[in-house]
Amino acid sequence: MATSTSCTGSTLLQPISKIIDLPLDQVNFVVCQLFALVTAFWFRLYLHPSKTSPFIRHVVATLLGFYLALFCFGWYALHFLVQSGLAYGVMIFTGVEHMHKYCFVVTLGYLSFCQVTRIFVFDYGMYSADFTGPMMVITQKITSLAFEIHDGLMKREEHLKPNQKYLAVRKMPSLLEYLSYNCNFMGILAGPTCSYNDYIAFIEGHCYEPKHLESNGKVNGKFKQNDPSPKRDVIQKLCTCFLSLMVYLVIYTACPTDRVIDDTFMASNPFYIQVLYLYISMLALRPKYYFVWTLADAINNAAGFGFNGYNTDGTPKWDRISNLRILHIEFATSFKMFLDNWNIQTALWLKRVCYERCPYNPTAATFLLSAIWHGLYPGYYLTFVTGIAVTAAARAVRHNVRQHFLGSDTHKLIYDVITWFSTQIAICYTVVPFVLLAVGPSLKFYSSWYCYIHLICVLLALVLPVKSRRRKQQEEPSEQNCLSSPDNNCNQKQKAT
User: Fold this and answer.
1) 48 given a catalytic annotation
2) Which of 87, 164, 248, 365 can pair with 142 through a Cys bridge, CB separation 3.0 to 4.6 Å?
3) What is the pTM (predicted TM-score) of this model?
4) For residues 424 and 279, is the Cβ–Cβ distance under 8 A?
């Protein structure tokens, strides 16, 4: 049944909401995304850079974005303008030397303020398509741009990492460019985050230049073309959306996560059944995110954004701003592999603004920033604190155990099966508080497991030795030279580390 939630947006689709028995805010969100998909095809064909100036493309993308925001969230969409305006004022009126720090504090602080008020305006613990969701993506864009401007205007070229050189912004964006980047119709509702340079290249029509048409490091002249079609990839992603939505509506309805703390369920089922049920319920929950992020990716591709060169067979790749790799998630054999393929653009944001720049304990700082960014529900913090312990344990096991299983394919297969099972259980165990949100239910779940995974992870992290990040970088300097379109190739190498 549809859950009764407050909806601050348009009530035009209320009859449809009643017919299909889904909350109005979710109906508004899906309909707006479908409208954005159709508009994206029109934008690519009729406002192509060869036919239209960047100014017109910026204006149209921004106005359409604000229209969708108003339809979904009503006047709460003004928070998008307030947040963007405050940050732009900081960029203009403060020195470049510390501008990125002030922008980070102001933008994240305003997001946290809205999240606190949202808890009191909406029902506590109620999932809804509220206005703070888009603000989370805008926060990523604002802070990323601030750091990119700082790198481009303050740092010397030799002091930048390869990916930072690519991302560095060499001039202050105009107000129109800034608003278009933050609030365009392709990403206003669900993202994903992208770099400012990539977005401007898309608007100006430079995203298909030869530097992006590389296959195995060389320009493939045989398949080179100026404007590859995203039609095939968009259709594939829409099919993925449909399947994900069906799986979520059918399975998760029958296997809700909150049943894992039901007294009757725990008393009437042995522990291994509880473990199996937990895995199935989490497996059925993920398609909701697959649907939202894959549809957002398809919208950007339909507009011509997201091109990432060519495959070896000459077919175009449209994964430049993709937010997930489903098969890599479901068959992940390590905690890091799961995180690297889940919400990819957010992981890149955390890496660029926190992990690479934090001088002390970057892993803990990154998890803490992720928790603050998600919101103020206690379950988020329990999840990310647990994530720190699981990450440390997984790293320790990999460094000390994996090499003993690489002698033969059979041993490697055994290792992969064991680590896949361990990773899936660890992920499910870790994210339960993220779903339950409140402290009481989360602690009830962990106590029903006697905090076994917490204790095992802490023990492994303390007993098994692991090289520090700085020492590791000194011993493997070649990895710092990996080439850098926006982190794609570099990340693939670093994921194996």
Assistant:
1) no
2) 87
3) 0.86
4) yes
